[in-house]
Amino acid sequence: MNPTPPLLSVRKLRVSFRDEHGHGAEAVKGISFDIPAGKTVALVGESGSGKSVTAMAITRLLPEHGCHIAADSEILFDGRNLLTASRRELRRLRGGDIAMVFQEPMSSLNPVYSVGEQIIETLMLHTRVGRKAAYQRAVALLKEVGLPTPDRKMSSYPHQLSGGQQQRVMIAMAIACEPKLLIADEPTTALDVTIQQQILQLLAGLQKKHGMAVLFISHDLELVGQFADEVVVMHHGSIHEHAPVQQIFEAPQDPYTKALLRCRPHLAQRPARLPVIKDFLGDSCYFEPPQRQRGYQADDRVILEVQGLCVDYHSRHGWFGGRHSQRAVDEVSFTLMRGRTLGIVGESGCGKSTLGLALMRLQQASVGRVLFEGEDMLALTPRQLRDYKRRIQIVFQNPYASLNPRFSVAQILTEPMLLHGIGCDAEERLQLAGDWLEHVGLPRKALAKYPHEFSGGQRQRIAIARCLTMHPEILICDESVSALDVSVQAQVLNLLQALQDELGLSYLFISHDLAVVKHLSDQVLVMQHGRCVELADADTLYAAPQHPYTRQLLDAIPQGWPHCIKPRVA
């Protein structure tokens, strides 16, 4: 009896990129793997490993100029080689038999069309139904992906939806024509843990209902352990390991796979230093570091005390409409100790980032007090506040947006020193900038480069160095590691911990990633709908959460194998 052929078969795929001078590199280096019908295969690896390039090659969405696929490469879908398919056949396949969900729904959805119009367009293009039937089918799709009031959501524009709702719309568009293969490229990376679990459950349910095969792309092995049947681990364009998910978690063979599993913080342990990829590759020998104890101590000194802080957002509907207010932060109080870390967690929209901005006076508070060593920062004049702004700094989530692309690294680091009168002259400021750059693990020669010449993790190090030039006492980290690969994330977390140990910095660590928060925090504050619903030492809160919402957040943390989203067949 002949075995059933796979739905998709990738054979000896080689993809290279060249610039106008003929210089370039091979992004995918002769990889081969299969995706059986109705199964989920996960592509896992760091940024630059070739995961997304592989997905774009399957859908033939790679640029025609500057990109070359080797002549002996094959991508067989239902027995047809997609690399030799005509444009007409590809148009029929894309959105029909093969659909794709991208990482950034806001940049994938058309901002000038309602979400309903975009789904209707997909249906009318691929199924050739009338507009009325397409409208009814679009409403049914929005209902199927779990959007409330789907008939009203039809007229909504992408910017009017949350990130999770935007991703649900993308999934609705992807399954509109009941594809045989769904490619999900990092579909949950920027989402909260609870929304992340909802999206995974949604994908698993839709896969079971429609019998789709899924190519799930991620950098997080813990996440794919809940969802995938097979895992393909990629590194620098090559496949390092390909095995069933159970083997990957219980008996990984390749050092790189073992490294990916170890880099992510775990709830059960808190090493003094997180392992990184290079600890497991080559001749490196990794030794387990001691565990770090967390929690406020009796002799800790208060550096920041927040009392009953409230922040309101005001809006006006129409030219002559009334003024409306919405409370984003509602009577939040906490104490931060010198040299300690307070983690602030909660879903998007709970007020975490607004709270951090209000502490910096970047967002106006309505009520409350923010006492920095006893001085109320909210009552200070702009002139009085100047010195305090130097002593409390913020690292934002997106290092690609927080660094001026027109400035060199030297300008980025020396400008704050010039504004605050640090350093006698330009030469001394440049020397200090180089010192801080080396302090965060980057070479002094990087001063002459521009942000686009660095990776995401390197840019975040530059952003941290910019804060350190001010000699701050408090650092607010607003989702500062959320967009990073697990290995780069481990490097930045190790850097933050080393700086705290050396300089005695106090951190307000804002994140939706509860595993990362537990690793770094002494105390954790949980926010929901602008209010503090729980505040306790990190170990106490994770071991015995008191509030139902805290328990809900903890239950949503990816646990990897065998904590499965969908039932498995033995």
From TrEMBL:
<dbReference type="InterPro" id="IPR017871">
    <property type="entry name" value="ABC_transporter-like_CS"/>
</dbReference>
<dbReference type="InterPro" id="IPR027417">
    <property type="entry name" value="P-loop_NTPase"/>
</dbReference>
<comment type="similarity">
    <text>Belongs to the ABC transporter superfamily.</text>
</comment>
<dbReference type="InterPro" id="IPR003593">
    <property type="entry name" value="AAA+_ATPase"/>
</dbReference>
<dbReference type="GO" id="GO:0055085">
    <property type="term" value="P:transmembrane transport"/>
</dbReference>
<dbReference type="InterPro" id="IPR050319">
    <property type="entry name" value="ABC_transp_ATP-bind"/>
</dbReference>
<dbReference type="InterPro" id="IPR003439">
    <property type="entry name" value="ABC_transporter-like_ATP-bd"/>
</dbReference>
<dbReference type="GO" id="GO:0015833">
    <property type="term" value="P:peptide transport"/>
</dbReference>
<protein>
    <submittedName>
        <fullName>Peptide/nickel transport system ATP-binding protein</fullName>
    </submittedName>
</protein>
<dbReference type="Pfam" id="PF00005">
    <property type="entry name" value="ABC_tran"/>
</dbReference>
<dbReference type="GO" id="GO:0005524">
    <property type="term" value="F:ATP binding"/>
</dbReference>
<feature type="domain" description="ABC transporter">
    <location>
        <begin position="10"/>
        <end position="261"/>
    </location>
</feature>
<dbReference type="Pfam" id="PF08352">
    <property type="entry name" value="oligo_HPY"/>
</dbReference>
<keyword id="KW-0547">Nucleotide-binding</keyword>
<keyword id="KW-0472">Membrane</keyword>
<keyword id="KW-0067">ATP-binding</keyword>
<feature type="domain" description="ABC transporter">
    <location>
        <begin position="304"/>
        <end position="554"/>
    </location>
</feature>
<dbReference type="GO" id="GO:0016887">
    <property type="term" value="F:ATP hydrolysis activity"/>
</dbReference>
<dbReference type="InterPro" id="IPR013563">
    <property type="entry name" value="Oligopep_ABC_C"/>
</dbReference>
<keyword id="KW-0813">Transport</keyword>
<keyword id="KW-1003">Cell membrane</keyword>
